[in-house]
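Local shape tokens

___
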Amino acid sequence: MSKDFYNILGVEENSDTGSIKKAYRNLAKQYHPDTHPGDKAAEERFKEISEAYNILGDPAKKQKYDQMRKYGYSGGSPGSQGFDFGNFRQAGRSNGPGGFVFEGFDMGGGLGDILSQFFGGAAGGHQTRRASRPDNHIRAEVKISSEVAAQGGKVQFSLQKEDTCPACQGGGAKPGSRIETCSACRGTGQQTVSGFFSAGAACPQCQGKGKIIHNPCDQCGGSGKAKRSKTYSVKVQPDMRDGEQIRLRGQGKPAAANRPAGDLIITIRIQSSGFFRHVGDDVHCEVPLSLQQAYNGSKIRVKTPKGVKVQVTVPQKTKDGTQFRLAGMGLKRNGKAGDQFVKVKVKRPDNPTAEELTMMEEISSQEGDSGYANV
């Protein structure tokens, strides 16, 4: 026989959330296994009531249930008035009984998706991998030097995050106190809706924990979680750009309701070192020159993020602000490397001699403005 969740709770289809909750509470008190020890019929009736409330008590699930029920499904088994979803696929189109086509049936991405949202579990008897919730992810920013960005390397950092409570070891109960297995779900944390498919829903009695805690841990309040500082070491690949991310799977907030833990998402920030400055894949820096070096010309060695020094030839009478381009010494992206731009800063003496004044005049009289010079 097919199940009708409205009949199970004894409410009308247009009942509001308050009326549904009231009906559930009355029935739950009447058939709770604690008041009927050893009564299998009462236990099964309580599970059935919990299943119905888990769906009808949630407005979003109720809306989807009503939509499916409208087209003939009411929680039934094969051979009942429910649809044969055996050939239905998440592509959103398949022929049902009597040539019915599911095109245009708003299922939010397919039957697999709606059942996953509907029951919080698997459909069609096949277990699907549960995804971690976005609100379980932790985001952090890590600063690295220009050298690490260019060459790669390991970076360590610490952060405060939710972890297993050290007082109760994650159990949630005060040390030495009793933890009772939930009688409604028998410790699984789920109620099961069965028919031509099976789907797991969080047990409403224990909120999906599978246990009842009478004396919560003083430190974590029964959650089994506590804020702790944890140190991580991450490998930064060479030529990493500012704003790129590294994802550490399962290192986010702890799992809840039998779902995997969230992820730790690290955003890389290249820290200005006082010498290097990054602009996209290019690197900029500034080096000082004496007036004599600028006037006579010179050879200088310039540090690069790649960890090597490059010799730059400065021509005679080089103007202040001239930039030299070191091709390919920036960050590499898709086989193409950025450049390093070296800007020279000519130091002028505070009290120049007659000879130094002549040098400055000759430099300034050179044709053209300071600009780029390839090395």
The radius of gyration is 34 Å. The CA atoms of residues 157 and 232 lie 6 Å apart. Helices lie at 5-9, 17-31, 40-56, 59-70, 111-119, 146-151, 291-296, 354-364.
